[in-house]
Write a structure and sequence with these properties.
Layout: E1 3-7, E2 13-15, E3 22-24, E4 28-29, E5 35-36, H1 38-41, E6 51-52, E7 63-68, E8 71-73, H2 74-89, E9 93-97, H3 104-116, E10 121-125, H4 127-134, E11 141-147, E12 152-159, E13 162-172, H5 176-195, H6 203-218, E14 226-232, E15 235-241, H7 243-248, H8 253-263, E16 269-273, H9 283-287, E17 293-297, H10 302-315, E18 322-324, E19 326-328, E20 348-351, E21 354-357, H11 358-363, E22 370-373, E23 379-382, E24 389-390, E25 393-394, E26 399-400, E27 406-409, E28 412-417
Parallel strand pairs: 1-9, 9-10, 10-18, 11-16, 16-17
Antiparallel strand pairs: 1-2, 2-3, 4-5, 4-6, 7-8, 11-12, 12-13, 13-19, 14-15, 20-21, 20-28, 22-23, 23-26, 24-25, 24-27, 27-28
Length: about 425
Amino acid sequence: MSTLLLDLNDLALRWRPNDEIVDTPAWALIGEPPLIGRSALSEARLQPRRINNQFWHHLDTNPIAGAAGVVRHHADLAFLQLKDIHLAAKADAYVISVPAHYERAQLSLLLGLAAATSMRIKAVADPGILLANSVDSEAPALLYLDASLHDVSLTVISNGQQWQRQQSVTANTKGLLSVIDRLANQIAKQLIQTERFDPLHLAATEQQLFEQLFEHLESQNLGTSSTIQLIHEDRRYEHTLTEAALRNATVDMVPDIIKCIQTNTASTAELLVSHRAALLPGLLEAMALIPSVQVTRLTDSALFEAFDQALPTLLESQDFNQLIYQLPKTQRPSNRPAADTESPSITHVLFNGRAIPIDDYRAMPSVALVLEFVASGDWILKPGSEPLTLNQQALTQQRTLSIGDRVTLGAQTFEFIQVL
């Protein structure tokens, strides 16, 4: 029996039938017939009054404005998307990782919708629990930070005899869609000043702008400088998103998220950061300054790998429609690089909001740091021609680097991290 994980997040619902992740955005165009997914996203700014992107975030059966035909409420839109996913995935059973804010009423409604599409649900699970079960952590508590279109959530998980979800809180009521809207407004303001052209005044150019920003988001390039190109009446308008502009889009969000993490950290903790949360410009750098918190940035496949590891435990029970907010610990080899193996514990350099594989960084022609990989599996940082500081101390001789080390060179800051 094939059992797939469905990652339910309104940025995109994702599943992995083979080695590649398949996704569909949580957007709907209400009409006859309704459009769901990417086809609806392509109409987001062309027909904004008929667009709905709230149906997973506010999953309920309350009547919605603009209801038409088969669509009466958010649950109808969710049903249509689940039906499309089941038709594409064709799994015998599913485990659904659910948004952190879902309460019992929403979970029950979700199971009912899945049953109506003939999806067999082995379990609904908190993604933080699956991920905690996949890491070899000795911290007394794990935190899982995730982002969606409409909010940022933090889940607190206790590390005892079993992994147990303690609570989930909203770290920020704004999500990635707010970042896109803010960037669009910044770009429009700049183009008005420089070109006397307002892309938000025309539906066609607003859609171009929205789609390009969304593509940068999906490709995990939102934290890097990007060039936006808009075409109107055979004329091309270009704008480069600078790092300063990107950070300005989250200037009021990041401090609130950091405060939430600090409030929910009683002692030392490990913070697992989803690939979606890592898209928020400036967030990773700010988190590196939180004392007593080890930050681990997860890849976009980490949840699927965690699910593969937990699946034998989930299949031990013959029951379906299980609620997984805790998992027993199992004895297993650590999936983290050990100090005496050939794999270094440091995998990436965090620079300008990007996590760059350390080997790729060292191979760059304009590399600013002198790094050397030694047989013990460590990375060595050597003094260069310009003054360096390591963790706010002047670097005068070569030093072995550890996860979390921060190096400053002029106005540039580098952090050495591990991406699982």
